[in-house]
Protein: Prolyl oligopeptidase family serine peptidase
Organism: Mediterraneibacter hominis
Amino acid sequence: MAYLELNALSVILCGSFRANVYLPEMDKLNLKDERHEKKYPVLWLLHSEGGSCLDWNKTMAEACAAEYGIIIVAPDAQHSLCTNMEYGPKYEDFLAKELPGIVRNNLPAAKEAEKNWIGGVGTGAYGAVKAAIKHPEVFSKCIALDGIFDMEKICRQAEEDKPTGIFHKEESLKAVFGSLQAFKNSEHDIYALAEKCGKGKFYIAGTDTSPYADERKRLAERLKEKAYYVRTEGEIMNFGEPVALKNAVRWLLDKK
Amino acid sequence: MAYLELNALSVILCGSFRANVYLPEMDKLNLKDERHEKKYPVLWLLHSEGGSCLDWNKTMAEACAAEYGIIIVAPDAQHSLCTNMEYGPKYEDFLAKELPGIVRNNLPAAKEAEKNWIGGVGTGAYGAVKAAIKHPEVFSKCIALDGIFDMEKICRQAEEDKPTGIFHKEESLKAVFGSLQAFKNSEHDIYALAEKCGKGKFYIAGTDTSPYADERKRLAERLKEKAYYVRTEGEIMNFGEPVALKNAVRWLLDKK
Amino acid sequence: MAYLELNALSVILCGSFRANVYLPEMDKLNLKDERHEKKYPVLWLLHSEGGSCLDWNKTMAEACAAEYGIIIVAPDAQHSLCTNMEYGPKYEDFLAKELPGIVRNNLPAAKEAEKNWIGGVGTGAYGAVKAAIKHPEVFSKCIALDGIFDMEKICRQAEEDKPTGIFHKEESLKAVFGSLQAFKNSEHDIYALAEKCGKGKFYIAGTDTSPYADERKRLAERLKEKAYYVRTEGEIMNFGEPVALKNAVRWLLDKK
Amino acid sequence: MAYLELNALSVILCGSFRANVYLPEMDKLNLKDERHEKKYPVLWLLHSEGGSCLDWNKTMAEACAAEYGIIIVAPDAQHSLCTNMEYGPKYEDFLAKELPGIVRNNLPAAKEAEKNWIGGVGTGAYGAVKAAIKHPEVFSKCIALDGIFDMEKICRQAEEDKPTGIFHKEESLKAVFGSLQAFKNSEHDIYALAEKCGKGKFYIAGTDTSPYADERKRLAERLKEKAYYVRTEGEIMNFGEPVALKNAVRWLLDKK
């Protein structure tokens, strides 16, 4: 196993950021590759609102990187909802442009879209799907675990001062999305984006009993044949389905 | 030495945060204190814009905690300028209320204001002075190293699209302060606050050659006899004056 | 959640050591306890040979600490087999004496044996059972997950230059135990210790299909009514039985 | 800045190890190097007995890596004195063989000896000089800061049960070196090695007032024209001479 905690400076985020990086098992590395020019596929993984990159330590992320010979990079997203915030950091740009550059300068990470995948859990799944739809030249596949996708509903709840279910309320959602009235069909509305999605493959997993089950299925329907919907028995972050990430990674690698 | 990296959940910040904690040297601890009821003074330390709590690792923070028997807590501040953001986390509330509670629940940290001090470097010094002026019931003394205080000037530069010297521009400053036109004399204007400052002691240090030297002196003047102005030969964060923190801590402890 | 990475100096280990610490959920803390005098039960957790304290990040350790209101402390053990090494650090002394003192000086950790439990996985389970048998005044209960207990067999394999199944060979085992011929019935022989064990409760868990299943059962037999043997469906560290730690913690707390 | 905490598995050390890695400033990277094939010089840095890789955080290591475009790798050495222990890990082999391989597989680290340098402080300086003398095919230059070199004297003190000045006594020194009587002129005796040293350049720095000043000068004399002796005003690890590492790095880079 090899596990890095990366602290680096982002020009786009205007400051330092933290990411956890899981590397392929050393003995899987090609040690005869004297010039060390081999590049590994990369899975970019986004935590959910209120969490941090440390959340992935409790999943099989390290085991997946080691066993399947991929690099997994999990950056902190703070409260950006992985979005180019109206008032705040342009997180989507960071994710699609700057972070891959920083990582490729420092680690043997492949550059081709077909070897770059993005994933997330909860609101991180929202961020991952959005990034994959908008940046198919960067990410060719996406895995969305226990996703929370319907931000329009969350905006409405916030406006009505009801619990949003995530660590956000009206004011902080405005900092992210700008006017909440204008959310529907905006570039942040994942259902509108899904309608126009031209490329990519999407693995959408979750339990049948989740209050978010319907919005996941609805997203899968919008993505049509590009989506692969998977019913799980439990949720990954509360240890209800520890193999959820492993199964998703196997799908990325076209393994049965 | 004892050095903790704390990752915990903040209700006010709506998510997890990171802090570095430096503890008194074990052999300075009173091991006969069988019930471990001794509480240590606490210095709360704020990094500058664009940095992180890791910045303090390169100062004598650990050495100061060990040698002088104090706890030093250095939280991440992200882009909040240590302020209750208009659009974003209420960082000042976090600092003055929630963080002390979390720390005191988990570490032997004293509660009395006379044993709680706040400090910072760069924009962290701005945050520290502001918190000390507004919350004298929490922090009795403040140390401001290489401070950047004149946020009104920075707001004006941002509006005119000039370089601000910190990792902020008009839009992100609005997320922090709200309307930039209304900044002057607002609760964020440290010079206005200083006029009305009723309590506290302020150690304000920096070089004569800094572009911020004038605004530091101006702040010291406003704080009148409550300020102690110190001229340094170099800046702490570029190793120009490594003893800057140590000298400031000695001042906190009334040591010559 | 609150998660600490502790780096501190040990006199007994002659150097700095690292430990992961998981704390009770903040909202479980008694915030009316103004003087913060509440002390929490502590579970001391030992990783297996070749691992590190980071291993516990992938278990429910954080969730158990948060949910059940206990402190979990997981120190690095390096290659000591949690033993007072013949040539090397006196790890058992560190564990039973110095580490509890360091932790209690810095965290609200209970002191009474009935609120101090020790546990481990693999060779860490060997270390935990040994410490619990030898130090009943410190640890009242022990949880041993997927334990590797028969060090005599490992010593014999090492002498015969066969694979030991752990990251040790003859030479490094001598550094730990001294003469391998003298191992049987020594203070390191857990079966000999178990015969004479006067106090304590032992939770011994593992799969039926493990090559170590027999030696686990044999240990449980020696410990007689003090042992509670549990058959699991998979191993904790490869995510085969993620609830293994949670079940063991519930047993510590006498929960059904 | 970019700062990595690396946790990886070592076959030679039989377990996981930790290293701090400091990387060149991102904006110094050649972003037109689309295929990211540029490799950076590497300085391997060893802490002193009783410390850890975290010690380097308080030096200008990060600043040097950023400013001069080099990678600095600082591994934990525990109590090995950076030596192939008689009873314990073969740390010298790890340092000269395995660690460079692991790092080069994961980071853009140059392979040529002329771009690989080793350094250390205290007993880490002993380890660095020894590695540089014995492995000129790996390390072309060496920087030794505040070095503690005369292990024979330390062995004698230990045998006479006198304080050794480092965190070692007779028993633990035997675990490292084997028979202490046989130390003189052994492969661990740095003065004997220096006599036969065929290649390399050695920067040996320290204060005139150190109790180790004489043994440093003696080492420099033995290394003859290959040594460059530098008198400093203070010690690096207690902030007495914060630029000590920077000056040494400039020497490595042939900068005035």
Notes: The domain at 2-150+187-252 of chain C is CATH 3.40.50.1820 (Rossmann fold). The mean pLDDT of chain C is 92. The first strand of chain C starts at residue 2 and ends at 10.
